[in-house]
Design a protein that fits this description.
Structural class: mainly alpha
Largest sheet: none
Distance between the termini: 14 Å
Number of strands: 0
Radius of gyration: 13 Å
Number of domains: 1
Order of helices and strands: HHH
Number of helices: 3
Strand content: under 5%
Shape: elongated
Amino acid sequence: MLIYYLSISILTFLALGLDKSRARKRRWRIPERRLLTLAWLGGAFGALLGMLVFHHKTRKPHFWISVVTGSVLHAAVIFLFYTL
């Protein structure tokens, strides 16, 4: 389970970095819905780190709320999985 969360978080982090790079070059972008889907599928930690490292999507309150909520929920799932 930990490997899954690590893998999806890395993928989400890289997706935010790629989207930021494409935004700067005014090229085709990754839809927000896809980025949030990756976050909710387990990549919330990578999304949060990507937002902070790349300064990407930081002005969008709904993105912050969704990613932080996902991070808290996934942290709870991981905690419960390893303590029960």
